[in-house]
Design a protein that fits this description.
The structure holds two protein chains of two kinds.
Chain A (H helix, E strand, L loop, with lengths): L13 E6 L3 E4 L3 E2 H20 L19 H25 L2 H4 L6 H20 L23 H10 L24 H14 L6 H14 L1 H4 L25 H10 L14 H13 L5
Antiparallel strand pairs in A: 1-2
Chain B lengths: L2 H13 L3 E2 L12 H19 L16 E4 L4 E4 L2 E4 L4 H21 L2 H6 L1 H17 L2 H9 L4 H27 L4 H10 L4 H21 L1 H7 L2 H8 L6 E4 L1 H4 L22 H5 L19 H13 L6 E4 L1 H4 L15 H22 L4 E7 L6 E2 L5 E11 L5 E8 L4 E5 L9 E3 L3 E11 L11 E10 L5 E9 L5
Antiparallel strand pairs in B: 2-3, 3-4, 5-6, 7-9, 8-9, 9-13, 10-12, 10-14, 11-13, 14-15
Chain lengths: 290, 484
């Protein structure tokens, strides 16, 4: 077999390869420019190595490329540009008293967006992404506030935290009536029944009657004679239906026994003042604020 | 396979090449009906493409007055009276679906009409060949020039060709960028050198691709880059009208001297006029093949020859496989236009078109969207009342500022407040072409909790146009703990 073999059916030259005795492959070569395109991509890739950062080097760094391009620097520039674009909002927020921010319809969407982002990062892990709270972590959407629900009070709480170690932290400890032996077991039950009766949730009128005196002696100093609470001290209102640690008898008994007392970190010094203000305005806008 | 065979195979294999030089094609100018149709299509399509961005359309103040504008910066597409917002991009999807179905239908009826007449690759290649012919002459002159030595004449003819190609390419890329920004402004900016970088980049890209694909690569694009040739054979059937060589009439072919008898031979005189005009460089007499874009120029070329030798025209013509394969061609059945395939495509086109038209007729210039807060789903307040939070988004697509009030209906004893606004039903201003998101709190008092229908009570938000009192309702649910 010498030279080219032409397939009689198609008139196309074969490659000469034979399978199974009689199957032959037609020679349909790729266009050569196709090959050149492949070479061009290889050349392009080599150019890329030279122009842009590419190779790691032994001393824990990498080749920088002739353009000195850095994605990190580019991002830095973009962040700076974005910050500059936001600067006028930040200036305006800084100049606006917190109570007036919600009324400023131009500022509000920016504050809500910024506040929501920070809230999701810093507050969401405990309070929930939407501020819905959980047992031991206050729901920020309702109107029951331990330390006050005005924009100013909320901002102060965020700044100093609660039992956070900050110099001005919101701090008031409810005594551990059970653990420290100040009340006996059945006295705790009576007091708990009385507390529940304040919001109409009591189940044992006799016990609640006995608990009234215990309450006056031990609890009224902070929670008030009528159990309405005291935001100066962070003492919860016991007459509403909202319970931070649960509203069942066992929950309330446990609270009296151990005193509870949650902790919230302080954010002043960790967030800038404008961000703190946006955060406070956002929390207030969740709907529970006074 | 024995040893002998293998050795000889390898020897033969060494002669075969994996990569072949491109066979340059020198299409000859055809004259006839289809060439005239193609000239007309070229004039119309190129005309539309180059002129469209310069047409004006008055939309009133603060809006672009360019008739066709893809305004990416403001996320709007303007097509004359039609205006598509970013959230209505499904209209574009609909147009793409319609285009695909239209392509299927045309292919099923008459082969690659799109490829042969209207595809940009075909149109621009055709234009580039006109330029080539202008500078270097028709097929034979171009062949002579290419195979001849490099003379001064060859140099200036080639230079003229490439310069003209580049000018066309620049105009093409230029026309493209004008679709994305106000054309007169951009033209000014481009000349003064202060147009956006992206405009220059796309101008460059489209100049390069037009020159490369239309001027240089040509048929290589259709054969090696375009997927459609691979799909086409599934899109047509034995009843599709395809450009066909009627071999039953043409064979046996052979040269024919004037005055010779036509008895006992076919009409094809093997003049290869059909091959000379083919922009794909194929021989249609080999039958239907992947490379054929069905541009019909071979029909023109063959008809001219048939007329000259005094044989009937239509040796190459639009014909169906059914007729080509028929035992008696003269008694051919008429083309079956209505068959399941064409009926299905037509029905689909009508359905999709109808759905789009209906959607467009009902397109509102006001859109209301209500999102129910998910975390928490509901809130119990200290006085025992229940509250749900909603984000109400009002999108004003009218080209005028509008004012609205929001009210709720179907929820007994419910109160509503909008964060940042005072009063029970404050006026909400939404400026032209804008969206306003409001945080709305709906409260059901403790006394009315009994009227709630379990965990989810349906009710409606009403967005009332403050000027004409027209109302848009949006369904929502009020959630609560249900039976305690």
């Amino acid at each position: 077999m010498t030279g080219k073999e032409i397939d009689s059916v198609t008139g196309v030259e074969t490659t000469g390869h034979v399978w199974d005795g009689d199957l032959k492959e037609l020679n349909k070569p790729l266009p050569r420019w196709w090959l050149y395109v492949l070479y061009a991509t290889i050349v392009w890739a080599i150019g890329y190595w030279i122009v842009y950062p590419a190779w790691p080097t032994l001393n824990d760094t990498y080749t920088k490329g002739v353009f000195d391009y850095s994605q990190r620097a580019e991002v830095g520039k973009e962040i700076a540009a974005a910050k500059e674009a936001q600067a006028k909002y930040f200036a305006e927020i800084a100049a606006t008293p917190i109570g007036d921010i919600e009324k400023n319809q131009e500022l509000l969407p920016f504050v809500m967006a910024g506040g929501a982002a920070v809230f999701g990062d810093k507050c969401g892990p405990c309070h929930g992404k939407g501020g819905g709270g959980a047992v031991g972590y206050p729901n920020l959407n309702d109107d029951d506030w331990l330390w006050g629900g005005t924009p100013e009070a909320i901002q102060h709480t965020i700044e100093v935290g609660i039992r956070s170690g900050h110099g001005e932290a919101r701090d008031m400890a409810m005594p551990r009536f059970g653990l420290d032996g100040m009340l006996k077991r059945d006295e705790i039950t009576d007091a708990a029944q009385f507390v529940l009766s304040l919001s109409g949730h009591g189940t044992d009128t006799a016990a609640a009657g006995r608990g009234a005196k215990i309450f006056t002696d031990n609890c009224a100093a902070c929670h008030g004679d009528a159990g309405k609470g005291n935001q100066e001290l962070g003492a919860p209102n016991l007459t509403d239906g909202i319970w931070l640690y649960g509203g069942k008898l066992a929950d309330v008994e446990k609270t009296i026994e151990t005193g509870r007392g949650g902790v919230m970190p302080y954010w002043s010094g960790r967030l800038d003042p404008v961000t703190l203000k946006m955060l406070a305005a956002y929390v207030h806008s969740l709907g529970g604020g006074k | 396979m024995n040893m002998m065979n293998r050795t000889s195979d390898l020897a033969a294999g060494e002669n075969a090449t994996a990569y072949a030089r491109r066979q340059k094609i020198y299409p000859k100018l055809a004259h006839g009906t289809f060439r005239r149709i193609k000239w007309a299509v070229m004039a119309v399509t190129l005309g539309i493409y180059y002129v469209l961005p310069w047409l004006r359309w008055d939309r009133g103040p603060n809006l672009p007055d360019q008739a066709f504008l893809l305004d990416f910066a403001n996320q709007r597409l303007f097509f004359g009276p039609i205006e598509i917002w970013a959230q209505e991009l499904y209209y574009i999807t609909g147009i793409l679906i319609l285009s695909a179905l239209g392509l299927f239908l045309v292919t099923a009826v008459a082969g690659r009409m799109w490829c042969g007449y209207a595809c940009p690759q075909t149109v621009w290649t055709d234009l580039m060949i006109v330029v080539e012919r202008f500078w270097q002459g028709d097929r034979n002159a171009r062949l002579r020039l290419d195979y001849g030595p490099w003379t001064f004449e060859k140099i200036w003819k080639k230079t003229g060709t490439h310069i003209t190609w580049l000018l066309i390419a620049v105009a093409t890329g230029g026309a493209f960028v004008f679709y994305f920004r106000d054309a007169p402004t951009l033209a000014h900016e481009l000349v003064n050198g202060d147009a956006p970088m992206v405009a220059y980049a796309f101008l460059g890209i489209f100049t390069g691709t037009t020159y490369l694909l239309g001027g240089i690569a040509r048929e290589q694009v259709c054969i090696y880059m375009c997927p459609w040739p691979r799909i086409q054979s599934a899109m047509y059937d034995v009843d599709s009208l395809l450009i066909s060589y009627r071999d039953y009439r043409g064979e046996p072919r052979g040269p024919h001297k004037k005055g010779q008898s036509w008895e006992g031979r076919g009409d094809c005189i093997d003049c290869t006029a059909c091959v000379a005009v083919c922009p794909m460089g194929i021989d249609i007499r080999d039958g239907s093949q992947m490379e054929c874009i069905q541009c019909a120029l071979c029909i023109d070329a063959c008809d001219e020859i048939m007329q000259r030798v005094g044989r009937p025209q239509g040796l190459i013509a639009y014909d169906t496989f059914r007729n080509l394969d028929a035992p008696v061609h003269e008694a051919r059945v008429p083309v079956r236009w209505f068959r399941p395939r064409t009926l299905l495509y037509t029905a689909l086109i009508l359905i999709v078109g109808g759905v789009m038209l209906t959607a467009w007729m009902n397109r509102a210039v006001l859109e209301v969207n209500v999102l129910h807060d998910r975390n928490p789903v509901f809130v119990q307040l200290s006085d025992g009342s229940l509250r749900n939070g909603y984000t109400v988004k009002i999108l004003n697509k009218q080209h005028a500022a509008r004012s609205f009030r929001i009210a709720i209906s179907g929820l007994e004893g419910a109160g509503m407040t909008i964060v940042g606004m005072s009063g029970p039903e404050p006026t909400i201003d939404v400026v032209t072409d804008d969206l306003r998101a409001l945080k709305v709190l709906v409260t059901v008092s403790a006394a009315k909790r009994g009227t709630l229908a379990g965990q989810a009570t349906p009710f409606r938000f009403a967005v009332i146009d403050a000027r004409d009192g027209s109302v848009i309702y949006h369904d929502a649910t009020f959630r609560g703990p249900g039976d305690e």
